[in-house]
Amino acid sequence: MIPVTKPFLPAEKDFRDYVKGIWQRQWLTNNGPLVNSLELKLKEYLDLKYLLYVSNGTIALQIAIKALDLEGEIITTPFSFVATTSAITWQSCKPVFVDIDPNTLNIDPEKIEAAITPRTTAILATHVFGNPCNIYAIQAIANKHKLKVIFDAAHAFGVRYKGHSIFEYGDVSTVSFHSTKLYHSIEGGAVFTRNPDVLRKMALMRSFGYSGIDTFSEQGINAKNSEFHAAMGLCNLKYVDKILQRRKYLYQQYKLRLKGFNVEFQHIENPDDYNYAYFPVIFPSEELMLECKAALELEQIYSRRYFYPSLSSLPYVEQVPMPICDSIASRILCLPLYHTLTTAELDLICRVLLRTQRFGKLKAASTNSFNREIVPHIKSKLNQKAVRN
Ligand SMILES: *Cc1c(COP(=O)(O)O)cnc(C)c1O
Description:
The protein is built from 13 helices and twelve strands. The protein is α/β, with parallel strands linked by helices. The chain folds into two domains: about 10-235, Type I PLP-dependent aspartate aminotransferase-like (Major domain) (Aspartate Aminotransferase, domain 2); about 240-380, Aspartate Aminotransferase, domain 1, CATH 3.90.1150.10. The longest helix has 18 residues, at about 240-255. The chain starts with 11 loop residues before the first helix and ends with a helix. Pyridoxal-5'-phosphate (PLP) binds near residues 81, 126, 152 and 154.
């Protein structure tokens, strides 16, 4: 079975060593030493001055919206994970969707101004699949109309853009360290800002608004994370360069093998460093995408319709047609990509796709002949590998 993603696991002994320390100290949560150490190491690794480790990437967005005192309308992208929109509605703000650029899959800055009203307070954009938004264009519009900017950088760990960590941009950026992300702490996330006042506010909000033992200076929530989660984050940070390297290799292998395949790839906006977080392919039609997905599933290969459906069709928002996003969302598929995916498995995935496209409609019979002719060869290779391991 080839899943669409697999969580990275560090050496078990590394984690156990940290757990031993937790037992010795008997300090389990509430800004413990491992949380502090993880925050320091992340700042060092990412070359950042400020960050706060929080319990997940969703609450990171909610705290960002709250700390910036946003109300009214927030301009956002319909092509993202559901938390990008639900964080807005959760804070009783209204998401106003702006369609995406069909090449970058990010919010189209050229369409933002037309969506601004007197009630607009912010732009919340996602660096989709780690691909940097047109940050300067978005920031220029925000400056002109006195709007705040939040970047949902959940996919963008390790991305650098124009000499800075991508997390430095916007009034606040957020990330997720969920197990499915390329760098994770089982559950977890972080908020980033360059503004010390906003940082202070978010730090208070993270822990119920406590400003002293019995004093509260903000309305807060519980967005803290535990020593166990921080321990996993510390373990995984040692491997992150290796993970990034492996993903880059696999991403390039996919691109090479799918050269003759009638699909489009996401156009990546020239970051200094990219993280190859996902491998999305955009099919010419939903029909072909579904055929390919089914053909992969016959081989027990699981891809994912990511992101589908458009967030502008959620039942709790004002539903509006977003022609580009709706079209892309119906035709896009993310292929398996994780650091232990083997080249033989990647070969198998690409062959299934190429064959499905070449021979048109998926028929059980032709799939069986394919299995007889081509797959045994690859399967035997996989088996050899399994034996070796
Ligand atoms: C994963 C993800 C989130 C939410 O992060 P969690 O840590 O799972 O809460 C938010 N936005 C995007 C774009 C994501 O992919």
